[in-house]
Amino acid sequence: MQHNKSKLIHDALLTCEELKTFTKCRTLEELESDRGLQLIVERLFEVLGEALYRLRNLDEAAFVQLTDGARIIGTRNILAHGYDIVDHLLLWDAIRLGLPKLEEELAKLL
User: 35-77: per-residue pLDDT in tens?
Assistant: First the structure.
């Protein structure tokens, strides 16, 4: 099945929006203590990483325009294969500090 660049970018943008929605008015302490919130955030990062992985395979020139694309894919791999070493502070910082820039870069790719 051939992936569609525009769909992958839209999926990534939607996932960024969902991450912001689920963590709005929440704290790092809540993330660390709320297993349900952890599962949501971790799954959304897996989806985001997979979308960017597919984008990289489909259009390398577009992918390299994403500042933290490789790190997000790496985070996805840790979540999928190293579930026991997940750093919620890293995820929290990525949401609070990295998502705005990623969303801006993804929007430019559209």
Answer: 999 999 999 999 999 999 999 999 999 999 999 999 999 999 9
86, with CB counted inside 10 A (0-12, 13-18, 19+), is middle
Q: Which residue has the tokens 């790190």?
A: 71
Taking the complete model, does pTM exceed 0.85, yes or no? yes
Q: Is the pLDDT of residue 108 over 80?
A: yes
CB 24 within 8 A of CB 52: no
For residue 15, the enclosing domain spans 5-109
Q: How many domains does the chain have?
A: 1
In contact, 108 and 65? CB cutoff 8 Å: yes
Enter the DSSP assignment of 67.
T
Q: Of 39, 43, 50, which Cα lies nearest the Cα of 12?
A: 50
Q: Of 54, 45, 58, 52, nearest to 18 (Cα)? A: 45
Tokens of 97: 């500090």
